[in-house]
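Recall the central idea of this unit: under ordinary conditions, the amino acid sequence of a chain determines the structure it adopts. In this exercise we apply that idea directly, starting from the sequence alone.
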Amino acid sequence: MRKIKNLYYYLFYKLYKWYARGGSIWLSDWKAELSLDVLWIFTGVSLLVYYTIFLIDI
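Accordingly, the structure predicted from this sequence is:
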């Protein structure tokens, strides 16, 4: 569990720095959090689709 937490903090920090270097530094933390949320949603949906297509049809 600690590795997942460290990965989350690392990705948040990288995204925050990337958004802070952009044209608008306002709400960089909000944009980084939203990007991570979208990444987790896409990961969850892709795992659900994999489970539905490959494991239920067997």
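Helices lie at 2-21, 28-55.
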